[in-house]
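idk why but the lab printer keeps eating my pages so im just putting this in chat instead. protein + zinc ion:
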Amino acid sequence: MDERYSRQVLFPGIGKEGQEKISKKHVLIIGAGALGSGSAEVLARSGVGKMTIIDRDYVEASNLQRQQLYTEEDVAEKLPKAAAAEKRLRAINSDVEIRAIIGDATPDLLEELVAGVDLMMDATDNFETRMAMNDVSQKYNIPWIYGACVGSYGMSFSIIPGKTPCLNCLLRSIPLQGLTCDTGGIISPAVQMVIAHQTAEALKILVEDYDAARTSFVSFDLWRNEYTSLKMSKAKFAGCLSCGEERTYPYLDYENMTKTTVLCGRDTVQIRPAAASEISLERLAGQLSSLGYVVKGNPYLLSVEMGEERMVIFQDGRALVHGTKDLTHAKSIYQRILG
Ligand SMILES: [Zn+2]
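predcted complex ->
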């Protein structure tokens, strides 16, 4: 262990004591796309004690350009990102205890997962989940690090309950909502720059060096050579429903979460059943094959070709309908297959 982390221990900001702290911490990473795979790799190599990573998607060819944990083999096997990430992270650092969850980070699940967690990393692609993370962070007093990028543009902000404004406060001054989903493409260096900001802050928080923690909101555009750091100390809003005195944690209300969602920047609709239930993929594959459908799969998911569309079904009954953005149409396809 000494040799493995020697360069990090030599760094004065961390030292032996800091390394000891890092090795005892538990980080929850929400999303295993571009930001999630980058953050997970940095934190695994840094020797974080425990990591939980959750993701609802599986690996596709278009991910390989920037999602650094994945390979062509993962694409060929259609491995869920959480499962592929777990495999790769174990190979990188077997000291780290890794838990991978294939699923949707609903408010209920987040509240369950944060038990014993010291820090949450934002690696989601949607606003709904970020707001739920923000409420969970305030309710359970767990810091989290916001990060997002589109094109060559990216941003990051650390939210430490009781010390900084929360994401809900920030919404009053920065129009973050429109920036979370974009079809305009993305370059890998923008992802890496956000990961660098997020993981540097993560290390500071894990070694409990709150004096070093950045309190400003960083944004940059690598193509236009712009870098901005905005002071946020005045952004805290006393009437904030997430971190104010009369807080209600509005984003933890399950009813606020839609059950059918168009996925970020894609012709894909996610459908989540009202109540999660384990389904037998093997039996379903048998039934569908006998009805003449072309079915492929692995132990985690089933892919069904249906003319223009393709539906991928996970063990918990959740499905991704590819080839449409029409919620009603996607629902009818789901019902045809899963009743
Ligand atoms: Zn707030």
